[in-house]
């Protein structure tokens, strides 16, 4: 017999009760604030005033690139100052403190766009790769019956997942069933190069490391497996700063500096491609083409006023968009 069970519990206060959404009159649209003077296009992609002028998704991607590059730029400057202080043999207090602060507050400074390996995170969330010998041994099961319950705290709730394999040899893909149960608790197993590794969201890592447990199906014999995060240049550099050994610190600073420089080159290339795409979407090839497009739009709208079916199609198409978006596009 094979069985899998998943459960997620949450703790909510009374202040989180649902509040009915206020429905506003679609005919009344708040006019956008007027700017004192006309700005040259493109507006700052980091805080776009009118993102409808180009792809909103592309604008978000460019924002992510800028957030990652901004942090790596600060880190690169701090690493250069640290290398100079080490070479000069003077006091390293200020440069070391600045670098240590950047490393300790990496997630906040980079808005979660640089992970522990000091690599940009352009899609999804930053991940932590870790090793768990007990979980690896469980996934390498050689046919013994399995009846376990996994538990982990996530946010203000707790996730529970259970798997029961009376006869793994006859079960349909028993390893996959165990993997699915682990994934329900936020642990993503991966088999590569002859061993199992695991990943989880970096924001969830401290809580997972502290709260993850496994027990038998009845909830007895609770065990807390050991989780060990994979080595990272961020942690190694922090350890070197604390030790204060000049030679080891200088070697680590140079290694991280080289990596950061390579990542910034790749980000600069990606940002330039994004800006070129935005520029192409924003401009007409010739001034006459903008005038002809406006004239054609005016003629189509004038013609549609006398053709009810075409007008209905246009209104139905608009109905799927927020009124403010339509106003910005047509203004």
TrEMBL record:
Residues 1-42 are annotated as: Disordered. It comes from the Bacteria. Residues 1-24 have a biased composition (Polar residues). Keywords: Cell projection, Cilium, Flagellum. This is Putative flagellar hook associated protein.
């Amino acid at each position: 017999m094979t069985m899998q069970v998943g459960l997620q519990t949450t703790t909510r206060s009374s202040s989180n009760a649902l509040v009915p959404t206020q429905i506003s009159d679609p005919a009344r649209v708040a006019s956008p604030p007027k700017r004192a003077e006309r700005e040259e296009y493109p507006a700052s992609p980091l805080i776009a005033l009118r993102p409808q002028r180009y792809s909103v998704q592309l604008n978000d991607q460019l924002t992510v690139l800028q957030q990652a590059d901004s942090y790596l730029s600060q880190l690169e400057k701090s690493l250069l100052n640290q290398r100079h202080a080490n070479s000069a043999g003077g006091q390293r207090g200020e440069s070391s403190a600045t670098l240590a602060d950047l490393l300790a507050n990496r997630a906040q400074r980079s808005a979660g766009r640089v992970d522990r390996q000091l690599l940009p995170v352009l899609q999804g969330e930053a991940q932590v790769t870790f090793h768990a010998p007990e979980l690896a041994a469980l996934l390498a099961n050689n046919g013994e019956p399995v009846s376990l319950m996994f538990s982990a705290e996530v946010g203000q709730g707790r996730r529970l997942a259970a798997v029961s394999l009376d006869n793994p040899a006859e079960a349909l893909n028993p390893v996959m069933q165990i993997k699915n149960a682990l994934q329900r608790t936020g642990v993503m197993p991966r088999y590569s190069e002859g061993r199992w590794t695991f990943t989880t969201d970096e924001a969830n890592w401290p809580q997972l490391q502290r709260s993850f447990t496994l027990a038998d199906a009845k909830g007895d014999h609770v065990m807390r497996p050991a989780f060990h995060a994979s080595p990272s240049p961020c942690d190694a550099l922090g350890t070197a700063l604390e030790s204060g050994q000049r030679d080891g610190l200088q070697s680590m600073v140079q290694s991280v500096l080289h990596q950061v420089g390579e990542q910034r080159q790749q980000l600069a290339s990606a940002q330039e491609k994004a800006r070129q795409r935005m520029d192409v979407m924003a401009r007409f090839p010739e001034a006459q083409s903008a005038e002809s497009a406006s004239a054609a739009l005016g003629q189509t709208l004038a013609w549609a006023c006398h053709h009810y079916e075409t007008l209905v199609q246009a209104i139905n198409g608009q109905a799927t968009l927020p009124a403010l978006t339509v106003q910005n596009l047509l203004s």
